[in-house]
Amino acid sequence: VPTRDHVDFDQIQQIQQLAEADARDDGVAHHKLLEAIHRLQLTAETPFDTATRCRLQPLQNLAVRMALEYGILQALAESNGEPITADKLSEVTDADRLCIARLMRMLCWKGYCDQVSVDTYAANDMTRHICTPGALGGEKILYVYARQSLVHCTETIFPIGRELSWLMREKGFLSKQYGDDQPNPMQLVFGQPYFDYLDSREEYQKAFDDSMAARKFGTQFQWFELYPAEQRLIQAHKGNPEAVLVCDVGGGQGHSLARFRERYPHIRGRLVVQDLATSFQGIKVPFGVEAMPHNFFDPQPVKGETEGPGAHLYYMRHVLHDWSDKDCRAILGHIVQAMTTESRLLIEDSVVPPSGGVFRPIHVDIAMMLTFGSALERTESQ
Known about the structure:
Elements: H1 9-23, H2 27-44, H3 47-69, H4 72-77, E1 84-85, H5 86-93, H6 97-110, E2 114-117, E3 120-122, H7 125-130, H8 133-141, H9 142-145, H10 150-155, H11 157-162, H12 164-169, H13 185-190, H14 194-199, H15 202-218, H16 223-226, H17 229-234, E4 244-249, H18 255-263, E5 270-275, E6 290-293, E7 304-305, E8 308-309, E9 311-317, H19 325-338, E10 344-348, E11 351-352, H20 359-372, E12 378-379
Parallel strand pairs: 4-5, 4-9, 5-6, 9-10, 11-12
Antiparallel strand pairs: 1-3, 2-3, 7-8
Helix pairs in contact: 1-2, 3-6, 5-6, 8-15
């Protein structure tokens, strides 16, 4: 029987201290608290416990996905806090009553909703969160990416996972010979690169766009809170109000720039968000933000030449991790050619520590590997 460490009560004391800091809305402490709880769980678990938990995780994801597809969680979220019985959920969703009861055992255990009595359930904060467009988008994108993670996971990651033996043994995926120019797992399993796949499926494209928009609103810190925007942008840009102040490259539906505009409503200069034309279809771009359809593998149209000074700041958030080093050089090359001596390039992305790991980046890194092949979350040296 494998041996295991016993719980160190210093760990519990550390968790208590971090919990107190987290209660004061310390964003850094919040992430440290989650990591400390994770380490405590690993210490308390036997190797068998840990292996079993990992083995059963996909079933938890699938239960959530089934509940979302049938509208069970959505019905709870729309109940205005009133408990709903399994019978009533069956009536409003057309899902089988017994299946609802079985799914709800898992969902209540996972904290997605609360059980208030036998076969009677109520929404909680998690129920309402998972039913927002951004969260739903993520779910739909992990089931193809697994909603930002459920749809992506179940629709893309799971099918790729099913073919891993074939991908590795027959196609050389992850072998020393596997390179940037070879088809990635998404192409081999689905016949299309990931973004082409989204482009050909309106539901998944919308799910992706919604989840990216939610991430921009849900982030702990905004880029202009970390970057000295007041000093370097607003004071530096006192000239032509028609010039572009910030160009958000690959910026989705413009929500990052909208937050910037809310913080600094007195700013001069244009705010331009660039993304593929499909990202702007059927949506209203936030007030004060201009939508510019653009593929960042093409020359950058906001450039410093005779027709204008280019952008003072080119900004990219969570874009480059989708691409190989070779592709990143091409993307950045077009921006560099458009910049003037007054321009700046700001890249916001996760940085993986050289040792150890942080929950979200290490999970996203595996998703990048499986979806794009040569894409990755990078360390500082990378």
